């Protein structure tokens, strides 16, 4: 097996693919009215996140911020609150920065040129190509994980599709398959095929519109593609969460020490080895704090980190958080509705109820 010298023609791929897409595409909220801002928000939310998870977030976000101008006026806290639980919070911040740039430099309308799109914060080559093709019909091929999988299987490509030179070649081949006047449907059809039929494990080749042109299906070995380097090793992280209650409210802390949760409100956390959460909080709050009951541990994954979190109920002497802006009291119902929090914080709150 080696690098293919020729690839299927536009006719082999685009005709059956587009017909299949018309008949089988899912109705998704951003598809019903694919204007650039909606496509932009959906593409950012869909990074590393499943479609079913994104839909309610997308609808709430668009209700609250229906245009780039509305988003540009929001505070970071408002945006992070709507993003609470969706993860990868940097995406929310760069979307906000992006909206400000679109309002400032492009009169509130996402630009149509590729170069200008790349200038928008948070918009890289993939997102630019997706927005310009889906919303404006510009013939930019997109290459996300789904398309990568479909293409490496059709071509039975032995190379790593994430290598710059291979990526460039795949884009050229996809551009050759794409009918110039059907860029929007073609890109969405390739992504949809990867999502619905050409799955990572057990692709449904008999139901696939391009099986006749697919080299891996012909050889019966699609699961051998794509050839990706081994995934980054996961690391185990053990944390303690300190639960301090006053009346109906709980003490929260704005995270600064955990880069992956920066800026979000959390039950105070501590890495074992820091001396424990009771000692750390005792020092930060200038209070006597003792460890009480330990609740059942919570497992949670953030990118390559596998967290095991031990929630500890803490008993405290009197203290005040006046003059300590990284602390605040909050009702459980405020988490994710008024305050930006991560899904880890919501899991701890669930355990408490
Ligand atoms: S024939 Fe099978 S392996 Fe080839 S693109 Fe279709 S689903 Fe994927």
The end-to-end span amounts to 57 Å
CATH class of the largest domain: Mainly Alpha
* CATH architectural label of the largest domain: Orthogonal Bundle
The largest sheet, given as strand count, sense and whether it forms a barrel, is: 5 strands, mixed
- Broad shape: elongated
The whole-angstrom Rg is 24 Å
What name goes with the CATH superfamily of the largest domain?
Answer: Hypothetical protein, domain 2
The percentage of residues in β strands lies in 5-15%
Could you characterize the architecture of this molecule?
It is a single chain. The chain is of the alpha+beta class. The chain has 2 domains: 215 residues, Endonuclease III, domain 1 (Orthogonal Bundle), CATH 1.10.340; 118 residues, Alpha-Beta Complex (Nucleoside Triphosphate Pyrophosphohydrolase), CATH 3.90.79. Helices cover 44% and strands 14% of the residues. The chain has 15 helices and 9 strands. The strands form 2 sheets. Strands 1, 5, 6, 7 and 8 form a 5-stranded mixed sheet that branches. β7 and β8 form a beta hairpin. Bound molecules: iron/sulfur cluster. The site of iron/sulfur cluster (SF4) has 14 residues, from α10 and α13. Iron/sulfur cluster (SF4) binds next to α10 and α13.
Summed up:
This protein is of the alpha+beta class. It is 44% helix and 14% strand.
Which descriptors apply to this entry?
single chain; 353 residues; alpha+beta; Endonuclease III, domain 1; Nucleoside Triphosphate Pyrophosphohydrolase; 2 domains; five-stranded mixed β-sheet; four-stranded antiparallel β-sheet; 15 helices; 9 strands; elongated; binds iron/sulfur cluster
